[in-house]
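Record type: ASSEMBLY
Status: queued
Input:
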Amino acid sequence: MAEEIAGRTAAEIRANTASLLEQRRQRRYVMRSLLRSPTFMIGSGIVVFWVLMALFSMHLTQSPFDVNPMSTLQAPSSAHWLGTDDLGRDVLARTLAGARSVLVIAPIATLLALLWGTVIGLISGFYRGITDEVIMRLVDVLLALPVVITSILILSLLGRSVAIVIIVIGVLFTPLVSRTVRSAVLREREHEYVMASRLRGERSWFVMAGEILPNITAPIIVEGTVRLGYAVFTAATLSFLGFGLQPPSPDWGLTISSERLFVQLAWWTVIFPAVALASLVVGVNLITDGLGRVLSK
Amino acid sequence: MSDASAQDVGRTDEAAPAAVDVRDLEVTFHRRGRDLPVLRGITLRIEAGEAYGLVGESGCGKTTLAMAVLRYLASNGTVDRGSVLVDGQDVSKLSEEALRKWRGEAVAMVYQDPAAALSPAMRIGDQICEIFRYHEGLSKAEARVRAREALRRVALPDPDATMRRYPFELSGGQQQRVVIAMALASNPRLLILDEPTTGLDATVEAEILDLIEELRGRINAAILLITHNLGLVARLCNRVGVLYAGRLVEEGPAREIFTDPRHPYTMGLLRCVPRFGMNKTDAALQTIPGTLPALGERKPGCIYADRCPMVKPVCLRREPDLLAWPSDAAAHARAEAEAAPADPLAFSPHHANPVGEAARHARCYFSAEVPEMPATTPVLSAPDAAAAARSSSDVLEMDTVRRSFRDGRKRLVAVHDVSLKINRGETFGLVGESGSGKTTLAKCVTGLIAADSGVISFEGKRLKPTAGRRSQAALRAIQMVFQNPDSTLNPAWSTRGILTRAVRKLGGLSSSAARAKVDELAADVRVEPRFLLQKPNDLSGGQKQRIAIARAFAGDPTMVVCDEPASALDVSVQASILNLLVELQASESVSYIFISHDLAVVRYVSDRIGVMYLAELIEVGSAEEVFNPPHHPYTEALLSSIPTLDFDDSHQRIPLRGSMPSLSEPPSGCRFHTRCHRFLGDICVEQEPPLQEAVTGHTYKCHIPPGELLQLQAATEPTAPIEV
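Status: finished
Output:
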C-alpha cells in the first residue's frame, strides 16, 4: 500500500513538474510577447511613470500647495521648470502630484464596474430568457443616459465626495462591462463541458463561477483596461466641472478648470496638466491594445 | 493510367510538364522560437488530368503540402529546400503580382467548410460574377451569362434562382456546389480539394463525389484530394500518397495501395476502419498504438518504428528510402543499413526522385512482409460478456416524445412522436442525416432539452423533463459523452479536478475515496496517471475523449448517450475509442444510445439500430436486419451512398431526389415521399404509412409490405456493400 502510494506519488511528482514547466513556459511566452510588444511597453512605461509620480512626487519636487504671491504666472524657467500658476504654485509639482487623485478614483471605479458588470453579465448570459431580457433592457436604459450629465445629477443630489464619484463612475460603467461579459458567457455556455456539469446536477452559481468564469478572464481583463482609460477621462471631466476634487487639490481636471481663465496669459498653467491627462489616457489605451493582441492570440 | 491522361492534355510537345511536380520539399514552421520541420523530403508528381489522393492522420502535413503548392504558407512557415513546379512553372519564382494572377487563374482550392468560403453578405450570382469580371475583364452582362453556365455545370437546379440567393439560403451541399463552381470558373489547371465533404451528410457527400467524379472527365485539371476518408480516395483517385509525420511513406496506384498495402502505416490505417457489416461481437477493431511523433522530434531510423508492430533492429539504425515495390531494393537497403555503423545522427540521404521509375514505392525495408503484419489488438476479444449482460428487460422507454423549436413565426418539430424501447446492456444506434432529430432526441433523454409532450420512463419510473429537476440518482444513471473533444472538458480545470468533481457529485464520495476512484477510472479508460495533472489543452483528442468517457462513468451509470463520440478523431484513435466503449459496456453492463453519421461505425457497435428521417423514427430493428433488405427505402438509399474501399463497380448508388424538406412544413402522408425512389403514387402523398413488421422486432414505416419490398430491393440492390 505504502509502496503503491509512493510509486504513484513519484510518478505524479514527475508529471506535476512537467505540467508546471509547461504552464510556466506558457506564462513565459505571454510575458515575452508582452515585453516584445512596443505598444504594451510604451503604454506601461507611461502608466508606471504616473503611478510612481502619484506615490513619490511629493519627495521630488517642491510642495504643490506652496503659495507664493511674489511670483505668480511666471513662465517656465530654471527655478520653475514648468512655470507657476496664478497663486505662484509650481506647475511641475502640481502636474506630477495631480496623478494621485485620478489614479485613486479611476482604478477603484473600474474595479467596481468590473465586479458588478461580471456578476450581471454572468447572470444575464447564463439564465437567458426573461431574466436576460429584463436586465438587458435596464442596461439599454442606463446606456442611453449621457454619462457626464447623469453623474452631475447624482453628485448634486448626494453631495460631492470622492467616494461618491467612484461609485457613480462604477455604476455608469457597469452596463458596458456586463454586455461584454454576457456575450462571452453566451459563447462559453454552449460548450459541452457546461452541459456536462448540468448533467452532474451542479448548482447554477457553481456553473457560472466555477466553470464559465475561469474561461472568460481574457475578455474581462481587456474590458477592464478599456474602461480604465474612460474612467480616467470621466474623473477628470467631473473635476473640471467642479464635481470631483475641490481646491486646493492639484487634480488635473480641477487645475485645467481653474486656470483656464489665464490660458492666453500663461498657457503653461493649463497645457501641462492637459498633456499629463492625455498621456495617461493614451498610456492606458496602449496597454489595452497590447494586451488585447496578445491575449486574443 | 496516368500516362494516358497526360497525353490527353492536347499539348503538342512530347514532354508536357506535370501539373504538379514537387521535388524534395522541406517546410519548417517557426513557433515560439522553435523550428518545427513539418514536411521532409517530399517528392511527388501529379500529371494533368490525374486525381491524386493524399491521406494520413491529422498533423501529418497534408494541408501544409497543399499550402506549399499554392505558396500560401502561414507567415511562420518557410520552404527550406526543394521546389514546387506547377505546370512547369516554379511557384517560388513568381512575383507578388504574378502570384496573385496565377492563384486566380491556374489553381483553385475547395475547403472543408463551404459556408466559410462564401461571403455571407453577397448574393451567389455577384460572387461568381466577380471572378469573371476580375480575372477575365468581362462586362456585367457577359459575366452573368458565364456565371449561369458555371452553376449549370455543377448541376444546381434553376441557376437563375440560385444566383439571386444568399449563401445562408442554400443547404450545405448546394453551398459546396457553388464553391466548386467558383473554383472551376477560371478553368484551373490544378484543383485542390481539402476535405471537401467532411462536414456533409452521407447522401450529400455522395452527390458531391458524383459531381467531382463527373467533372473530372470534363475539366482536364489535375486534382489533389486531401482527406482522412480512405473510401473517398478509393473512389476518386488514380494514385495515392500516404503521409506520415511529414514523410511520404507509401505511394502508388490507389487500387493497389488499398488492396495490397506495402507499408505498415498504410496497413494500420486500413485495418482501423470498421469494414462494413463488421460487428463488435466479431472482433475488436485494430488500432495503431502510440501517437504521432511530436513535431521537430528527430530520431535516427524509421519515423514509424515506435508504432510499428513489425519493427526490427535495423529499422532503428537508419531510415529506409522510398523504395520501389516490387523489387529487391528493400533487401539491398536493409543489408546496407545493417552493415553501416550505428550512427544516431545519420539520416539517410533524401531519395532520388522515384516517380516515373516504378509505379509503387514504400518507405519500408520489409514491404514483402506487410501483408502478414501481426494484429495490434487480439483479433477475438471477449465481447460475449456483453451478450450475456444484455437482456430483454427494457431500461428506457419513450412514448410519443415530441419536441419543437420556434424559428421566428415558424414552428419546427425536431422530434415527432418517437416511441422506442431500449434494453438493458444493449447498444442502440441512431442514424440519420443532420437535422433529422437524432441529437435532439438524445438530449431529451438526458434532460438537456425538455420534451414538449410524451413520456420518457427509466427503469419503470417517469423521468422529469429537464436535468435540473431530476434527482441526483436519475442524473447519475443517465450520462452523456459528447462529440467535440476540444469543448467537452473545461480548459481551466486539471484533468484530475474534472474527474474528482464528477466522482464526488455523481458518486457521492468523500475526498479520500474520490481520489482512489479517479485513479481507478483513469486506469479503466487507459489514461496514464501523469496526464491527470495536465490541463485538457495539453492532451490529445483521443485522451480528452477518454477523460470525457471516464467522467460519464464516474457514477456507474446505467445508460450512456454517446453523441458522435469518435467522429472528430482520426481513424486509429476512433478505433481505440470504440474498442474502449465496447469493453466498458461488457464490464459495466451499461446501455448505450449511440449516434453517428458513419454507418459502418454504427453497424459495428450497435445491437439494434433506429433510422430517423425528418424528425420521425422510420425504422427500428436489429443491426443486421436494418442494414439488409427488406428495409425502408430511405435506409436503402443511405446505405448505398457510403464510399467503400471495395472497388466494386457494380455498387450502384441510389440518388435521392431534391433536398431535405423543411421541418416546419413536413410533406404530407409519408414524409419521405418527395425524395423516395420507390414512390408508389397518391397513397404515399395522402396517407401516413403504416408500421410494417418485417420480422419480430424489425419495423419500418412504409406503404410497401415487407414481402414486396424484399423482392424490389433484392432485384435492384447489387448485394449490400459488405466486405469480408
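Annotation: Residues 1-14, 344-356, 718-724 of chain B have pLDDT under 50 and may be disordered.
Annotation: Residues 284-372 of chain B form one domain.
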